[in-house]
Each structure stands twice: as structure tokens, then as C-alpha cells.
């Protein structure tokens, strides 16, 4: 792209050139995101109830997911314990994830 050369025109064909026109600054911005460009975005204080409500909903969802995962883990541990008891592979109770549990056998 060639470089643009700017020069002041004194006269064209013996006539004075028209005065330079300034580009009017737009009073209304077409794009609201363009208006936000380069500014620090602050949350409007009127919206705080919405953010509190969304935070409570997000916390409730996280707690619900945690309770469901914990329930599934407990059910799998119970099923695993029942299967170990029925199959007789329980061992001395020191194996597995639970650590030192109680043995169900009455051997002394």
C-alpha cells in the first residue's frame, strides 16, 4: 500500500478550496460493545440481587451433585461389602479402602 502524502491546497484552478470538513463525532454509538471498549467494566449495583440468586443456585447445584456422588460411593461400598461377605473373600478386615474394619467371623 503506497504511503499517503498530505499537503495543504492553496488554490485549485484559481479558486480557494472549500474549508476542511471535520468529521462529526458520533453522538450515538451503534454498537454498545464498541462503546465499552477500553473501559473498566463495573457491575451495576442494581443487579446484585440477581448475582446473589445465581450464586445460591450454583451453590445448591454443587451441593446436590456432591450429595449424589457421596450416595453413589456409599452404595457401591455397601454392595462391595455384601458381595465380599457372600463370596467369602473378606480376609481379616485390614484389606480394602476402609482400613481396619471389624471381622464378621467369631473365631478367637
TrEMBL record:
Gly residues: compositionally biased ranges: 89-102
Comp. bias regions, Basic and acidic residues: 22-32
Disordered: annotated segments: 9-34, 89-108
Keyword Transmembrane helix listed: yes
Annotated TM spans: 50-76
Highest rank taxon of the organism: Bacteria
Keywords for this protein: Membrane, Transmembrane, Transmembrane helix
Protein name: Uncharacterized protein
UniProt organism field: Luteolibacter flavescens
Amino acid at each position: 500500500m503506497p504511503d499517503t502524502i498530505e499537503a495543504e491546497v492553496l488554490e485549485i484552478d484559481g479558486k480557494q478550496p472549500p474549508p476542511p470538513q471535520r468529521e462529526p463525532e458520533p453522538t450515538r454509538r451503534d454498537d454498545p460493545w464498541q462503546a465499552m471498549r477500553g473501559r473498566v467494566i463495573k457491575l451495576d449495583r442494581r443487579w446484585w440481587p440477581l448475582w446473589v440468586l445465581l450464586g445460591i443456585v450454583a451453590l445448591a447445584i454443587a451441593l446436590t451433585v456432591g450429595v449424589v456422588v457421596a450416595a453413589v460411593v456409599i452404595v457401591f461400598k455397601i454392595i462391595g461389602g455384601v458381595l465380599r461377605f457372600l463370596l467369602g473373600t473378606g480376609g481379616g478386615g485390614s484389606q480394602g479402602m476402609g482400613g481396619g474394619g471389624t471381622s464378621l467371623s467369631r473365631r478367637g
